[in-house]
Amino acid sequence: MSKKTQQIAVPLISVLLGILLGAVVMAIFGYDAIWGYESLFKTAFGSLRSLGEISRAMGPLILIGLGFAVASRAGFFNVGLPGQALAGWILAGWFALSFPDLPRPLMLLATVVIAAVAGGIVGAIPGILRAYLGTSEVIVTIMMNYIVLFVGNALIHSFPESVMQSVDSSKRVSANAIYQTEWLRSLTSNSRMNIGIFFALIAVVVIWYLLKKTTLGFEIRAVGLNPNASEYAGMSSKRTIIVSMIISGALAGLGGVVEGLGTYQNVFVQGSSLSVGFNGMAVSLLAANSPIGILFAAFLFAVLSVGAPGMNVAQIPTELVNIVTASIIFFVSAHYLIERMTGMTIFDFLKNRRQEAKKVKEGN
């Protein structure tokens, strides 16, 4: 089986195994798995509003997934995506609340730029520390999530009372800053679909072109494969590390503002790191860090998210959808773990095991 075929087969097989394992868990606890999945997919695809909600959920997942993909191609595991997304959301939200009368085109452009810059700065910090001090980007980005979370909550509490609805939540931003549009609402039966999905689709094309067709993309992939060889070839691995983390953080910041101003339309205190940040990482892992694959992986996650409440019809807890999602990521990770430990893909590993078993059988 060719490498390209394997890259497509692994996610598909992982999805099927995840759904199967979810069905087994439902059966163990006495639930009707067929009825549960039927209710899930009916809810997800049963109305125009549900389709709009799927598109709404896909936007931030795609953007954050692309951010993780860029960092991964450079050889880094950016766990700081939730913090980078939250930074973009809070600062863009603060700007929208502070200047509510800006014309809509200028407001949209400003919030997008501010979110990208905020996420990029937060992403640059672990990149600089890794490039010049050799620190672990995993530890630094995890700590950055907490720093952004608590600093962000303190910043929200310092907002003027005139823009606050309660102690922990701001008022809605002005109509000029909301990413939802009347046209999209009427098209999808009053769903929360917003222009964030179009930002995401544009980003897919841009990141695919960046990684496949540009010098910077080649350098990112080269540094990810072997930073020492890249240095020997004349590339600056330090510069590439920092640039890739800035791009990663900027995309996460965009995902954060799409989630915030597209879905919630305000800013509020968070009790923990943004779950959409971790879900974006899972989307990228499922897609093997492929920009095109991220589009389809985000669609799957959005379907599961939107359809989950429908499982209540079958009297099945919606938390079982999380088991399906986790199982899919587990099976994808198992493939990479085997490849990392043995130097072979899971397909090569199974092929070798069959050949060994055949030799033993012939020997006997």
UniProtKB/TrEMBL annotation:
GO terms for cellular component: plasma membrane. It comes from the Bacteria. It is found in: Cell membrane. It is a multi-pass membrane protein. The chain crosses the membrane at residues 12-34, 54-72, 79-100, 106-126, 138-156, 193-211, 241-261, 294-314, 320-338. One of its GO terms (molecular function) is transmembrane transporter activity. Keywords: Cell membrane, Membrane, Transmembrane, Transmembrane helix. The keyword Transmembrane helix applies. Pfam families: BPD_transp_2. Coiled coil: none annotated. PANTHER family: ABC TRANSPORTER, PERMEASE PROTEIN, GUANOSINE ABC TRANSPORTER PERMEASE PROTEIN NUPP. This is Carbohydrate uptake ABC superfamily ATP binding cassette transporter, membrane protein. It comes from Streptococcus sanguinis SK330.
